[in-house]
């Protein structure tokens, strides 16, 4: 169809360019590849968790190496930002998947975002995955199959003939069918699939195969069959050319029965053949207090008093503990009532910010009621409040049962707040026990309490506390570090693909 103009919109962040040698920059520019990110979240537009942060920051960090564009579903949050959108084409329906349009937006910093426009699937209140009450949409398999099929169309050059990706990078289960549809269509464009959280697998019944237009092989162990169901996550793992996950330690953990969520055998095989890589997430440099031009950060004591006032906590000279988290089972927050007395006996206070499962919210509300002026809980999330809490706190509590990477521990370290966390996933990679924070081994109140006691002992030794704070503030890994291994991986896969198909199959973007 002809091009048309509509007026939805988005907002965007600045894309920093890191200084490297002039010759190296020119070499990178001449070898720029076209990379398509396929993600269900983008922090500036629609976000439910850490995936949105990664999907917003990593393409920008990769901008020094490649031409990166992002594909996202057309949720109301995406459509309502007020930026012009150009309609590129209409894609026909397929099996039980409705027709859709593909729109494109150019964001203020130059990042191009493609949007899958299908109001019957995406124009709904709530989160990207469910309603206002946290219930998953029953047709999520249709919603994200349509999304994956649109990604395959972009990969084939059907949508935008002058920008056909050299590689597709799909993220988590909502994008799992992108590499699968590409493979079933016989496409040779290489793909990467990143596992952000193995526990969310995107399951649906086998009888959904006809409406998703899946071939018979999809129902096999080598396809996406998973204990009598279909797993979008397994589809991504099996059909992508390479799998990554968000920390080195989590890449090891998911090959074990404890953390593998039933996919440990497949992931162990991928790892043994070099098909699974752990690449730690970074954080945006805007989180560093010295880089935050929006706010003038006062000293830690002033921020502490601000947090005390926010949560109606008793001002004293004891340690201030904070929790800033999604309130879900994964985060291990059921241990907090069991260690509350340890915190209070040390003269500490606890401020909690977050929202999530109703049962966890109720538990924390009741806990705050039992300890007025010592424990405070606010339901919700506000980034400025979170930053003031990181800046004003002495310790951040992260008793996660598992944590693929985690970002909050690095945010806290930027502000000299020492994380107290379980030794799991990316927490084990980003926290040095006794140097930049405190780690504990077991998901038990006893193990957690021991770490809190160690932390309070350090709090009473000002010189040691200050030394740990300085080390913590130097610890965070930023996105320009994380982008380099992705660049290396992309180039390897693209070169291998060209070697198999011949140089005429795919062109590079110059300049």
Automatic annotation (TrEMBL):
Question: Keywords in UniProt for this one?
Answer: Glycogen biosynthesis, Glycosyltransferase, Transferase
Q: Does the keyword Glycosyltransferase apply?
A: yes
Q: Where is the Starch synthase catalytic domain?
A: 34-268
All residue ranges annotated as the Glycosyl transferase family domain in the record: 314-456
List the catalysed reactions.
[(1->4)-alpha-D-glucosyl](n) + ADP-alpha-D-glucose = [(1->4)-alpha-D-glucosyl](n+1) + ADP + H(+)
What Pfam families has UniProt attached to this entry? Glyco_transf_5, Glycos_transf_1
InterPro entries, per the entry = Glyco_trans_1, GS/SS, Starch_synth_cat_dom
Q: Which SUPFAM superfamilies match?
A: UDP-Glycosyltransferase/glycogen phosphorylase (SSF53756)
Q: Where is the signal peptide?
A: none
The family annotation for this protein states: Belongs to the glycosyltransferase 1 family. Bacterial/plant glycogen synthase subfamily.
Q: Which PANTHER family does this entry report, sorted A to Z?
A: GLYCOGEN SYNTHASE (PTHR45825:SF8), GRANULE-BOUND STARCH SYNTHASE 1, CHLOROPLASTIC/AMYLOPLASTIC (PTHR45825)
Relate the protein's function as given in its record.
Answer: Synthesizes alpha-1,4-glucan chains using ADP-glucose.
Report what the protein is called.
Answer: Glycogen synthase
The record lists the organism as Halopseudomonas salina
Gene that codes for this? Answer: glgA
């Amino acid at each position: 169809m002809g091009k048309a103009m509509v007026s939805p919109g988005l907002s965007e962040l600045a894309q920093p360019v890191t200084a490297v040698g002039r010759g190296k920059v020119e070499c990178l520019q001449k070898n720029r590849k076209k990379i398509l990110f396929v993600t269900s979240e983008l922090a500036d537009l629609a976000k439910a968790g850490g995936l949105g942060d990664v999907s917003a920051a990593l393409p920008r960090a990769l901008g020094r190496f490649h031409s990166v564009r992002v594909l996202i579903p057309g949720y109301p949050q995406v459509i309502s930002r007020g930026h012009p959108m150009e309609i590129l084409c209409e894609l026909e329906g397929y099996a039980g998947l409705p027709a859709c349009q593909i729109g494109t937006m150019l964001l203020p910093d130059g990042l191009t975002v493609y949007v899958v426009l299908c109001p019957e699937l995406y124009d709904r209140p709530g989160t990207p995955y469910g309603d206002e009450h946290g219930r998953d949409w029953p047709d999520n398999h249709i919603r994200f199959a349509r999304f994956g099929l649109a990604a395959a169309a972009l990969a084939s050059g059907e949508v935008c003939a002058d920008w056909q990706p050299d590689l597709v990078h799909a993220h988590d289960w909502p994008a799992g069918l992108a590499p699968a549809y590409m493979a079933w269509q016989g496409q040779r464009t290489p793909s990467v699939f990143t596992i952000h959280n193995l526990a969310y697998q995107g399951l649906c019944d086998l009888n959904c195969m006809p409406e998703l237009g899946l071939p018979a092989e999809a129902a096999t162990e080598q396809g996406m069959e998973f204990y009598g169901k279909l797993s979008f996550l397994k589809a991504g793992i099996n059909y992508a050319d390479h799998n990554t996950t968000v920390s080195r330690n989590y890449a090891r953990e998911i090959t074990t029965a404890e953390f593998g969520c039933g996919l440990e055998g497949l992931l162990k095989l991928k790892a043994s053949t070099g098909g699974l890589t752990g690449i730690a997430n970074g954080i945006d440099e805007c989180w560093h207090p010295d880089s935050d031009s929006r706010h003038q950060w006062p000293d830690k004591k002033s921020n502490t008093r601000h947090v005390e006032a926010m949560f109606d906590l008793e001002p004293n000279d004891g340690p201030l503990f904070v929790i800033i988290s999604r309130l879900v089972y994964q985060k291990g927050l059921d241990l907090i009532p069991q260690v509350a007395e340890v915190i209070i006996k040390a003269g500490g206070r606890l401020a909690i910010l977050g929202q999530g499962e109703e049962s966890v919210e109720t538990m924390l509300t009741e806990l705050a009621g039992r300890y007025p002026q010592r424990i405070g809980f606010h339901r919700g999330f506000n980034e400025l409040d979170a930053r003031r809490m990181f800046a004003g706190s002495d310790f951040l509590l992260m008793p996660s049962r598992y944590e693929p990477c985690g970002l909050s521990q690095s945010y806290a370290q930027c502000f000299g707040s020492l994380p107290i966390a379980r030794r799991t996933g990316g927490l084990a990679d980003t926290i040095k026990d006794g140097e930049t924070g405190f780690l504990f081994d077991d998901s038990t109140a006893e193990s957690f309490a021991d770490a809190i006691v160690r932390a309070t002992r350090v709090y009473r030794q000002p010189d040691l506390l200050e030394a740990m704070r300085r080390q913590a503030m130097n610890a965070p890994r930023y996105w320009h570090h994380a982008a380099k291994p992705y660049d290396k991986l992309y180039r390897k896969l693209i070169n291998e693909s060209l070697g198999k198909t011949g140089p005429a199959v795919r062109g590079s973007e110059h300049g």
